[in-house]
Design brief:
The structure holds two protein chains of two kinds. Chain A is of the alpha/beta class. Chain A has two domains: about 5-85, Arc Repressor Mutant, subunit A; about 95-180, 3-Layer(aba) Sandwich (Glutaredoxin), CATH 3.40.30.10. Chain A has helices spanning about 20-35, 45-55, 60-70, 75-85, 105-110, 110-120, 165-175, and strands at about 95-100, 135-140, 150-155, 155-160, 185. In chain A, strands 2-1-3-4-5 form a five-stranded mixed beta sheet, covered by helices on one side. The radius of gyration of chain A is 19 Å and the shape is globular. By secondary structure, chain B is of the alpha/beta class. In chain B, the strands form seven sheets. Chain B has a seven-stranded mixed beta sheet. Chain B has a five-stranded mixed beta sheet with strand order 2-1-5-3-4, with helices on both faces. In chain B, a hairpin with a 2-residue loop joins strand 1 (about 5) and strand 2. In chain B, helix 8 packs parallel to helix 17 (about 590-595). The interface between A and B is medium-sized, with 14 and 14 residues.
């Protein structure tokens, strides 16, 4: 199964709808104002992001076309941008979007093990969404927190210094809707050296 | 002028040139895939790498501006190695299917791999496979072959003006596609086939038909619209397999429209190959002798002096001249080329020419379009207007129903009487016309194809004089004729005052009063109920409306089967070249009339094409100068008066089917079905 952000095609599904919500419509205006007049297509990435957030983490055809319309761009130009960046998903994802970093530092520190844990707890294989729609598991390239490897991004938050135990606990807590702590899971402050006990 | 050293040779170049262009000045050929003269620079194929002094690595010459004192080397080991590296990367994923690829033999990648490719691959991994995309009935895709040069993307956005094609994804996953795999909705879509350096986008109707080296290549002129684009006809035996554009900066640059390129399959369908006579309402094949004898006796029976002839969309000068002279021998003056009732002012050549020349559109900064849909009447010309719109910020206004022209314009009115406002300076667009350095006026035949057409021409001329669109040096008064035959026909006087102002009414009256013999020179676009009581002789090559209604059919060759002279909208004399002999028993029109004249007292004097042409040139010396723009003729028929309301209606309803050849074409029928009917 493919990464939902690396799909090149979109499907026309009549059930998919998209209109800017009222708050987002105001945000759209503010975003466009940041760019010089006549250059509003520069706002395509922020608007796609906004649309994706509004639409439960993915972009359907209507959302893409809405962004194109808002910026007076042609549909294909917006689709080009949306397919270029893997951060834009063109397929529905679960409530928790788990992105496991697999680039060398994280990999050396055991990202493969984390992937197995994720598969085990969520019950979905790579690139898939679990049946209960709570999880989508994907592997990504470097997320830039190598100092605290291995790490995982879940939705907008980083979870660092993971090992099999604390990652498993983390996912179970997520599954049970319990509170979880962000950042380093071993109490490390930013990227300071690990405390010796 | 700044100087640049290329391979130790110092040459002058102009500011703004790229290193690649400078190299071309020095006669050094640089290999390339993504770079194209007429498109913006992408710099993504990296094939054009050259060595530049002081640069640590090779540079992409297509994207590097040339600068004073640069020292460029194109033939060093480093350059060769760099290009070989690029080629190796391109070939990682390119399939080895040249033997079944339509581009084989004329493929840029194939040719350049000969110079820069390795003999074997160093890769054991599988090649990537890409799903083919649907791009409509004309362009077939084998996307695995694509090397992502993005020429097609740039062409569709920049020249064709349709944002349809795009490059999705990135890296190994990059794919060229149209949005949701829709048809490319452009009249110029076929050009992406020529632009594609590999076999990813190929000609769908031509698929697996032939190899380039098997084809007979004939340089000729397009006859499907008034521009007379330069084309190359590729034929095998008596079949035209494809048509390609030839570079002609003055007319079509490097493009041709889809009708020119794809309507040619109509040339082998519905053809008239033998003379036919109508007996008991059924057409039966006969011999030339019988047919011509019958024609002669009908002419004598019905009154020779009333014999009429009307020319069609493909009538060349030779046919028109021999027809006209034949009728003159019979003391008849009932001939005309204005079947669509488009008016002109007799005695003023500038009243039916595209006076400014097509190339001048590039410099225009304000264009007033009156009753014309240039996108359908001359699609390649429309891309020039788009070019002016993009490069000169040209302001464009339209009088006529709203249409999509691939550029923004001000819609002034649906009604021709808006010209009164312009003349009386009551229009917002006037400012743009007044301030423009190179303003143009473009009048379509839909604006002047009714009784008041002459008045429209006069008021337009007056506006041009008043707003300085026409002056000593420039002439921006342009008529856009829709077919290649018209200007030539008017030039040699193939019109009669009997049919002035209202063709339909005067024709009906003439037929009703005299019941004459009527020759239709490939004319199908006429109301046949008004010809009811006449004896119709259809001289043409396609079994269309005209042949259905004819009493006698005399087959004549279609455009690739004869050499003909045409005059294009600018008044430029063009000559087509014969690719192969006429199909069946078809004979050139001039031969038919020469033979017919033998049945009468006086005879036509010419005996062969050479004599005919010499006779024509003697009478009309300007037809002797091929491919040359005529001298500027004056626009001095301006008259200010008030014109009445008249809602403009474009006379082309379907771009893909405007004449007997394209109506017989399956490709054009598919286009109509897939592109036009879906939109409507």
């Amino acid at each position: 199964m493919k990464h939902p952000g690396l799909i090149n095609s979109i499907k026309d599904n009549e059930k998919d709808l998209f209109e800017w919500s009222e708050t987002n419509f105001l945000k759209v205006k503010k975003i466009i104002e940041k760019y010089p007049s006549g250059r509003k297509q520069s706002a395509v990435i922020p608007l796609l992001d906004l649309a994706q957030r509004q639409n439960k983490g993915w972009l359907n055809k209507k959302a893409l076309e809405k962004v194109a319309e808002t910026l007076s761009m042609s549909f294909i130009r917006v689709l080009e941008v949306a397919t270029f960046y893997s951060m834009f998903n063109l397929k529905p994802i679960g409530k928790n979007y788990i992105q496991i970093c697999r680039t060398t530092p994280c990999w050396l520190r055991g990202s493969d093990k984390l992937l197995n844990i994720a598969k085990e707890v969520t019950g979905c294989s790579l690139g898939e969404t679990s049946k209960d729609k709570r999880f989508t598991v994907v592997e990504v390239e470097c997320l830039g927190a190598c100092c605290n490897a291995p790490m995982v991004q879940i939705n907008d938050d980083y979870f660092e210094d993971l090992n099999e135990d604390n990652f498993k606990r983390l996912l179970i807590n997520l599954k049970d809707d319990k509170e979880i702590s962000k950042g380093s899971q071993i109490g490390r402050l930013s990227s300071n050296p690990k405390r010796k006990n | 002028m700044p100087k640049i050293t290329i391979n130790n040779k110092v040459i002058d170049f102009q500011d703004g040139m790229t290193v690649m262009q400078a190299c071309e000045l020095a006669d050094v050929e640089i290999p390339r895939f993504c770079y194209h003269d007429k498109l913006s620079i992408a710099g993504n194929c990296r094939m054009c790498l050259v060595e530049m002094e002081k640069s640590p690595k090779p540079i992409a010459s297509c994207a590097m501006p040339a600068a004073e004192g640069m020292n460029i080397k194109t033939n060093t080991e480093l350059v060769k190695k760099a290009r070989q590296g690029v080629m190796e990367f391109l070939l990682i994923n390119h399939p080895l299917d040249c033997p079944i690829c339509d581009q084989g033999g004329e493929c840029d990648l194939q040719d350049q791999a000969l110079h820069y490719g390795f003999d074997k691959s160093r890769y054991e991994e599988n090649k990537r496979a890409v799903k083919n995309k649907y791009m409509g009935p004309l362009v077939s895709t084998i996307m695995t072959r694509c090397i992502h040069c993005t020429r097609c993307v740039r062409f569709s956005t920049e020249i064709a003006g349709v944002d349809d094609i795009g490059l999705l994804g990135r890296g190994e996953n990059a794919e060229i596609t149209t949005y949701l795999e829709k048809t490319i909705e452009s009249e110029l879509s076929g050009n992406v086939i020529d632009l594609c350096p590999v076999g990813a986008l190929t000609n769908k109707p031509y698929a697996f038909q032939s190899r380039p080296w098997e084809l007979k290549k004939t340089e000729s002129v397009d006859v499907f619209d008034g521009m007379g684009a330069s084309i190359r006809i590729d034929s095998k035996g008596k079949n035209v397999l494809r048509v390609l554009p030839r570079l002609n900066e003055e007319i079509n640059e490097e493009w041709i429209n889809d009708k020119t390129r794809f309507a040619i399959d109509g040339l082998s369908r519905q053809r008239l190959d033998k003379p036919y006579i109508k007996i008991d309402n059924k057409l039966e094949a006969t011999s030339w002798d019988t047919a011509l004898k019958l024609v002669a006796s009908e002419i004598k029976k019905r009154g020779a002096e009333n014999t009429s002839a009307f020319s069609g969309k493909f009538s060349d000068i030779e046919s028109l001249y021999s027809t006209k002279n034949f009728l003159n021998l019979l003391n008849s003056e009932f001939y005309d080329c204005r079947f669509d009732n488009t008016q002109f002012i007799p005695g003023h050549r500038s009243s039916y020419l595209f006076n400014s020349s097509i190339q001048k559109i590039d410099e225009a900064d304000a264009i007033l379009i009156i009753g014309s849909n240039p996108k359908w009447e001359a699609a390649v010309l429309n891309s020039r207007i788009r070019k002016a719109y993009l490069n000169n910020n040209c302001k464009i206004a339209l009088i006529g129903p709203k249409i999509n022209l691939t550029y923004k314009y001000t819609h002034l009115s649906n009604d021709i009487s808006y010209l009164n406002n312009i003349l009386n300076e009551k229009s917002d667009f006037l400012e743009h016309l007044k301030n423009a350095k190179n303003p143009l006026m473009l009048i379509g035949s839909s604006a002047i194809n009714y009784n008041d057409g002459i008045e429209i021409l006069k008021i337009c001329a007056e506006i041009c004089n008043k707003l300085n669109i026409v002056n000593e040096s420039e002439n921006g008064f342009n008529i856009l004729n829709q077919n290649i035959s018209r200007v030539g026909a008017l030039d040699i006087g193939f019109y009669s005052k009997n049919f002035d102002r209202d063709f339909k009414v005067s024709l009906t009256k003439h037929i009703r009063d005299t019941n004459p013999v009527v020759f239709l020179l490939g004319l199908d676009e006429i109301n046949f109920s008004s010809l009811k009581d006449s004896f119709i002789i259809y001289v043409g090559h396609h079994g269309d409306e005209g042949a259905n209604n004819a009493d006698i059919i005399l087959p004549s060759p279609a455009f690739p089967e004869k050499t003909s002279t045409f005059v294009n909208i600018e008044g430029r004399v063009l000559q087509t070249t014969k690719c192969f002999n006429p199909i069946g028993e078809a004979k050139e029109e001039w031969k038919i009339f020469r033979a017919l004249s033998q049945e009468f007292k006086d005879q036509l004097k010419f005996n062969n094409l050479k004599e005919l042409r010499q006779e024509i040139i003697k009478k009309f010396p300007h037809l002797n100068q091929l491919n040359i723009l005529p001298n500027k003729s004056e626009v001095n028929f301006g008259k200010s008066h008030i014109i009445d309301n008249n809602e403009i209606e474009y006379n082309i309803k379907n771009f893909y089917m405007t004449d007997s050849i394209s109506r017989a074409s399956v490709n054009m029928a598919n286009c109509t079905k897939e592109i036009l009917n879906r939109v409507a």
